[in-house]
Amino acid sequence: MSGVTALTLTLLPLFVLGVLALVLYWAFGNDRRGVPDHTGHDFGLLVQVAATPTVEAADVLAARLRRAGIRVTVVRRGGAHLLLVFPADAPDAKLLLS
């Protein structure tokens, strides 16, 4: 009887660890998303609607968009300040800024 108990006490934790490993692989191991771009050229969901040479000009345009209810982000890349909005707001933002 003690042989069966010792075998059970050895195999049960291994079985539990195996099941846990399979569950974790199923939950986190099949990630097919692309690798994020850390070079500064990819802004994820946001699209560029304008570029200005100065931060003051970018702030004026961003304030205009915010008054119209469009969420805007201003980022600096190189020597330009870019105004970024969500794709659904891009046509309205471009129309408002033109």
Automatic annotation (TrEMBL):
Residue span(s) of domain SPOR: 46-93
Q: Where do transmembrane segments lie in this chain? A: 6-28
Domain of life of the organism in this record? Bacteria
What keywords sit in the KW lines? Membrane, Transmembrane, Transmembrane helix
* InterPro entries per UniProt: SPOR-like_dom, SPOR-like_sf
**What Pfam family does this protein match (any one)?**
SPOR
Q: Iron: is it a keyword of this entry?
A: no
Output this protein's name. SPOR domain-containing protein
Top-level taxonomy:
Bacteria, Bacillati, Actinomycetota, Actinomycetes, Pseudonocardiales
